Amino acid sequence: MTVWWVRRRDSALVRIAERMVFFGGEPMEDPGAAELADALADLAVEYVASARGEAVRQAGALLDEAARELRRADRFRGTLLPVVLSHIRSAEAVLDEAGGCLGLTLHPSDRSGVGGGGLGVGGRRR
């Protein structure tokens, strides 16, 4: 049963990495929760400091919240995988909400943003 939880955790982390590209993050292969949390926190700082409007700053606050959820997941370091997965799923939901602030609908199966096709905080294609 542990292998099942590990696969679900790893799949969820990949989905978060894919979503992060829409916000201007760099594509990651085999990301960990802490690595994703750091990258999302860096993006959040850019979004919160943006002069592009309240929606962008609100998305930045949500990116920071997603980073905090991933840090909570990382604290368990695989010992309580159902709890880890719960925090990762919360981070996914928050990222979807952040995308909604920007008028984006993020779908885990939509890989069109992978490889730098997403929008950065500057609103330009990367």
What does it look like?
The protein has 126 residues and is an all-alpha fold. The protein has 4 helices and no strands. The protein has helices spanning 2-22, 33-48, 54-76, 81-101. The longest helix is centred in the middle third of the chain and has 23 residues, at 54-76.
Helices, strands, pairings?
Blueprint: H1 2-22, H2 33-48, H3 54-76, H4 81-101
Main traits of this protein?
126 residues; mainly alpha; 64% helix; disordered C terminus
Helix/strand class = mainly alpha
Radius of gyration: 14 Å
Tell me about the biggest sheet?
none
Provide the low-confidence segments as ranges: 109-119, 122-126
Give the DSSP E fraction (strand runs of 2 or more residues): under 5%
Q: How would you spell out the order of helices and strands? A: HHHH
What separation lies between the terminal Cα atoms? 40 Å
Can you count the beta strands? 0
Q: Residue share in helices?
A: 55-70%
H/I helix tally: 4
Shape: elongated
Mean pLDDT: 84
What does this entry show, briefly?
This protein has helices spanning 2-22, 33-48, 54-76, 81-101. It is an all-alpha fold and 126 residues long.
